[in-house]
Amino acid sequence: MAIQTVMVIGAGQMGAGIAQVAAQAGLKVILRDIDQKYVDKGLAGIAKLLTRDVEKGRKTAEEKAAILGRITGTTDLAPAAEADLVIEAIVENLDIKLKLFRELDAICPAHAILASNTSSLPITQLAAATKRPAQFIGMHFMNPVPVMKLVEVIRGIATSDETYAATKALAEQMGKTPVSVNDFPGFISNRVLLPMLNEAIFCFYEGIAGVEEIDTVMKLGMNHPMGPLTLADFIGLDTCLYIMNVLYEGYKDSKYRPCPLLVQMVQAGYLGKKTGRGFYTYNPDGTATPMVRK
Ligand code: CAA
Ligand code: NAD
């Protein structure tokens, strides 16, 4: 059955981006979060990016209106009954995701595919919370979703060939390049990226250099578009810590231990750009002030 209606759960930075690219691909989108203020923030962010596209001549005002018209915001889970595919993009916490997938499994139509945008959690374990593991898959978009071309597609042990083919085709319809990756902690993207970000945090923690110096080394020395500490703030320090813990526990290897400073910053509520403070403080005028170690 053709996928026409997609429900995206979580209207944060990833969920809003996924909703946008799905609507741009002509799909009907239901965007759900737990509080209306998060739904509104997600929708406002999409509208802002589409306005920029219109100003830059990449879309017409009519196309912008049509894309926004295809997205409906809600705090209710019941509209999952209309979805052909659900893409989950809530907090990177196993227990919270398992609870959500049990609820979705009971509401969604029998033909619907359940997909997770998890950064690192086992797809097989998430799928086992449902009665449809053959119709369960990992669909891992990169941040910022409207810009980044990659989608890692992760099959759980029970994922069917039909589910894989439908998901791959949908990622392509959304303008993305799907890459098939096996179900191991952190997949490829975060198994390679997150230890590098964690190591950069260790460099700062151990006083080897300041925040800006570390970022500058990797930007000018390795041509990375963002320095690692800017990127950690951009991803969200809570998400970075969740991923490091999944790698650490999944591989039982001390090389994945999260830096104590990362743990401490998450405990303090310094979650990066989304809370206004991480390795940089994000000022109202658009500038960013680097953190200084006392
Ligand atoms: N959302 C949507 N579009 C964005 C954006 C955002 N948050 N940030 C920037 N853009 C767009 C801008 O609108 C701009 O396009 P136009 O000027 O044509 O309108 C374009 O991207 C370039 O932006 P800038 O010139 O402002 O800045 P830049 O050249 O540094 O590019 C960037 C921004 C694309 C984000 C670039 O810095 C980059 O590639 N950074 C690294 C991103 C990255 O590594 N992402 C992966 C994170 S890990 C992950 O996603 C997996 C996980 O599970 C954690
Ligand atoms: P975020 O904190 O920006 O947004 C998460 C949203 O989910 C919040 O708005 C929260 O209110 C909402 N939420 C929490 N529980 C919910 C529930 N039960 N139902 C509906 N909404 C709920 O986080 P994010 O950065 O968008 O990350 C979301 C997921 O995407 C995580 O699994 C993360 O690992 C993954 N991911 C993140 C990135 C990244 O760079 N940040 C990249 C790829 C994948």
Largest sheet: 8 strands, mixed
- Ligand roster: acetoacetyl-coenzyme A, nicotinamide-adenine-dinucleotide
Provide the CATH top-level class of the largest domain.
Alpha Beta
Strand content of the residues, in percent? Answer: 15-25%
Q: In terms of structural class, how would the helical and strand content be classed?
A: alpha/beta
Judging from the principal axes of the Cα atoms, what is the shape? Answer: globular
| Overall pLDDT confidence | 98
Strand order of the largest sheet: 3-2-1-4-5-6-7-8
Query: What's the CATH topology label of the largest domain?
Result: Rossmann fold
CATH architecture of the largest domain: 3-Layer(aba) Sandwich
Number of helices: 11
Computed CA radius of gyration, to the nearest angstrom: 19 Å
Helix content: 40-55%
Number of E-type strands = 10
How would you characterize the overall build of this protein?
With 294 residues, the protein is of the alpha/beta class. The chain folds into 2 domains: 5-182, Rossmann fold, CATH 3.40.50.720; 190-289, N-(1-d-carboxylethyl)-l-norvaline Dehydrogenase, domain 2, CATH 1.10.1040.10. Helices cover 46% and strands 15% of the residues. It is built from 11 helices and 10 strands. The strands form 2 sheets. It has an 8-stranded mixed beta sheet, with helices on both faces. A two-stranded antiparallel sheet has the order 9-10. Helix 1 links the parallel strand 1 (5-9) and strand 2 (28-32). The longest helix is centred in the first third of the chain and has 20 residues, at 36-55. It starts with a strand and ends with a strand. The model has no long low-confidence stretch (mean pLDDT 98). Residues 49, 52, 56, 119, 142-144, 146-148, 189-190, 193, 225-226, 231, 235, 239 line the site of acetoacetyl-coenzyme A.
